[in-house]
């Protein structure tokens, strides 16, 4: 499972409201949990789901804005969890 906090920033004088977010249809089809926040300088999104689906969503988000002719900076913070805590506790017992 991966959680990604993603921020899109417009380059130059472009308005934040012109940036494209992921559609709820896309997110639902890929079984991702999500929320959106329009900040004062960025479009922020939190995505949680299967690693492959999160990476697909990030690529789609970036490419969708490029295809619309937007110059953007995308910053993502990724968190992975699943299995590593179980492996750690099994190692401590042994």
Order of helices and strands: EHEEHEH
Which percent bin holds the helix content? 25-40%
Distance between the termini: 26 Å
**Tally of separate domains:** 1
Radius of gyration: 16 Å
Q: In total, how many beta strands?
A: 4
Which strand order do you get reading across the main beta sheet? 2-3-1-4
Query: On the 0-100 scale, what is the average pLDDT?
Result: 86
- Counted by DSSP, the helix tally is 3
CATH architecture label = 2-Layer Sandwich
- Outline: globular
Low-confidence stretches: 85-94
Helix-strand makeup class: alpha+beta
Write down the CATH class.
Alpha Beta
- Sketch the major β-sheet: 4 strands, antiparallel
CATH fold naming: Alpha-Beta Plaits
Describe the structure.
The chain has a 4-stranded antiparallel beta sheet with strand order 2-3-1-4, with helices on one face. Residues 85-94 have low confidence and may be disordered. The protein is an alpha+beta fold and 94 residues long. The chain has 3 helices and 4 strands. 35% of the residues lie in helices and 33% in strands. It has a single domain (2-93), classed as Alpha-Beta Plaits (2-Layer Sandwich). It starts with a strand and ends with a helix. 13% of the residues are buried. A hairpin with a 4-residue loop joins β2 (33-38) and β3 (43-49).
